[in-house]
Design goal:
By secondary structure, this protein is an alpha/beta fold. The protein folds into 2 domains: 198 residues, FAD/NAD(P)-binding domain; 103 residues, 3-Layer(bba) Sandwich (FAD/NAD(P)-binding domain). It contains 9 helices and 15 strands. The strands form 3 sheets. Strands 1, 2, 3, 4, 5, 6 and 15 form a 7-stranded mixed beta sheet that branches. Strand 8, helix 5 and strand 9 form a beta-alpha-beta unit. Bound molecules: flavin-adenine dinucleotide.
């Protein structure tokens, strides 16, 4: 019987683990992938927009070589944090269900069953891509995660989307001599794209270095082409790869199965008390970006670090749990 069981070994799951240690509560973190799996899945050459100091957790200093840390530096940082705090993390183990029992919960995973008094869901949203729902989407040439430019050199690559990831990917590929075509549902680059990226991508489109189709949707994907639809009708484009940068969604089926109420609004926000992060299921808490529902830019590492102290402070204060 653990005092605290955390689902998800991302930055916020780790922060909860640290906070539990500070309160001398037994704690286990169950992670379905590698340690900080979402960051591991980020593009290989990505750089954070936050300074390293703002990403620090558990009082462990984060020193990076440049102004902003890279993915590689972040992976090394979180490895050191876990080592420093000696956290118990079970990797490559997916949690399938959380069920309420007397005095706590039973949690079943791909490998075991656990009992815990309190369960903290810190599952993020980066595991489930928003699918386009078009024929051919399951072909191996279609990727929802972009890693690095090398495989795409000299190839016809369609980048779907107009938000930050799509723009970053289109620019990096263009600089490595891929033939990039952006397929964009709306009439322009997303207004929320970082201010130093937006003019860059717009100028590359204007000068024709990157082709862009606005007000256009993908209709079908084949091995050697994609079919798009726009005001003038259907058009077939030669194509080797499709990078669908269409965003991600929290695992609502998992949240609802655990009994968490989901708001019937545009952002499908999961129900929780913002003071304590406890959901409508007593003893079941939410931490990290999952709290934002479909508003996936609401929380990030910088502004969700306090979730863990709110949760553990509340558990210790009002639930009378013994170490
Ligand atoms: C390209 C990019 C750049 C970013 N740059 C910054 C930045 O500069 N500054 C900043 O503050 N934030 C940044 N962010 C946001 C930041 O990465 C997230 O806020 C952070 O990763 C959220 O942490 P989390 O622990 O809530 O979720 P995640 O990091 O997504 O961790 C959730 C974990 O839960 C695991 N999981 C999911 N379901 C299960 C299950 N059923 N069983 C077991 N494990 C499960 C996942 O594998 C994952 O490891 C960036 C994000 C992106 C995409």
């Amino acid at each position: 019987m653990y005092n605290v069981l955390v689902i998800g070994g991302g930055p916020m799951g780790i922060t909860v683990g640290i906070e539990a240690q500070k309160h001398n509560l037994s704690c286990i973190i169950i992670e379905k992938g590698a340690l900080v799996n979402s960051i591991y899945d980020f593009p290989v050459n990505m750089t954070f927009f936050s300074t390293s100091e703002r990403l620090e957790i558990g009082g462990v200093p984060f020193i990076s070589h440049g102004d902003k840390p890279t993915r590689t530096e972040a992976l090394e940082y979180f490895r050191r944090v876990i080592q420093r705090w000696d956290l118990q993390i079970n990797n490559y183990e997916e949690v399938h269900a959380v069920e309420r029992r007397e005095n706590g919960f039973e949690v079943s995973s791909s490998k075991a069953r656990y009992r815990a008094r309190y369960v903290i869901v810190a599952t993020g949203f980066y595991g489930l891509p928003n699918l386009m729902g078009v024929p051919g989407e399951a072909l191996s040439k279609v990727k929802h995660y972009y890693d690095e430019p090398h495989p795409y050199i000299g190839k016809e690559v369609a980048v779907i989307g107009a938000a930050n990831s799509a723009c970053d990917v289109a620019l990096e590929l263009f600089h490595k001599q891929a033939k990039v075509t952006m397929i964009i549902r709306g009439e322009g680059i997303n207004e929320r794209v970082k201010y130093w990226i937006k003019p860059n991508i717009e100028n590359r489109i204007k000068e024709g270095s990157i082709k862009a189709y606005f007000n256009t949707q993908v209709k079908r994907i084949r091995e050697e082409s994609i079919t798009v639809v726009h005001a003038a009708g259907e058009e077939n484009l030669e194509n080797d790869f499709v990078l669908a940068m269409t965003g991600f969604t929290p695992d609502y089926a998992f949240l609802e199965k655990a009994g968490i109420r989901i708001a019937n609004d545009a952002f499908r926000s999961p129900h929780y008390n913002p003071e304590t992060h406890e959901t409508n299921v007593p003893g079941l808490f939410l931490a990290g970006v999952v709290c934002g529902g479909l508003k996936t830019n609401k929380y990030f590492i910088e502004n969700s670090k306090d979730h863990a102290s709110k949760i553990l402070g509340y558990i210790k204060r009002s639930k009378g749990v013994k170490s």
